[in-house]
Prior knowledge:
With 294 residues, this protein is of the alpha/beta class.
Amino acid sequence: MATAVSTFIAAPDGLRLHARCYGSRSAALPVVCLPGLARTAADFEALARALAGDAARPRRVIALDYRGRGLSDYDPDPSHYSLPTELADVVAVLTALEAAPAVFVGTSRGGILTMLLAALQPAAIAGAVLNDIGPVLEPQGLMRIKGYVGKLPQPASFEDAADILRRLFGTQFPKLAPADWLAAARRTFKLENGALLPTYDVRLAAALQAIDFEQPPPALWREFDALAQVPLMVVRGENSDLLSEQTVAAMRARRATMETIVVPDQGHAPLLTEPEIIARIADFVARCEAPRQD
């Protein structure tokens, strides 16, 4: 089974960024995984191991911790927890690791960064999987995210953390078992000096303060259309409150060849850990290497 190796890369401003790298450099098209706003590279462990350990077509997989998340350095200036800065960080990682072109798997904020990268450097993207994200963000989903990022209670144990997460997200993920919630807790919290703390800089909440729910963020249709020349897959959680069915339909109207997966009994954002979902993503990545037919 493929194991992860930690790699550290200097951001354009010198801050140290962390990436989990799986597999070896080879002729196979690499995969770059970009997590959600307050998430880390650990979210892609199952997918990355499966892709890198594929007996027929092993791949190099790179999963990034944005600044202020995971093992990346925290930024002394929280205003840098912004899409322009993080996009520059992604470009720096791609350059340092010679990882472009690649297929991008972007969860939530990672999908936004993928669309922004397509507009900035289209040649860097050979295919894209947008996990529960699109050009239009639903206000209720943004409001919910703003309500908990940087504001989670401090758990007394990982079991307590699992209960906190279940209370917060149980309606969106009603079928998760206790072991799943405990695994989520271990991805969300870390033990530091005897206390459980989030795996991200809580000042990340400042990045959400500017959201005005009377004036939702502008739609990213131009950035979405920048993906027009590469294979595209959209994964939507059946219970998602951030990516609506209407937005997915509008995306498909602009891109008839877009592949869509709806994950039952999951919300924002699908975990991408189920064998059948991993198999479909692996098949999609393989097709990104094939000559285009459309």
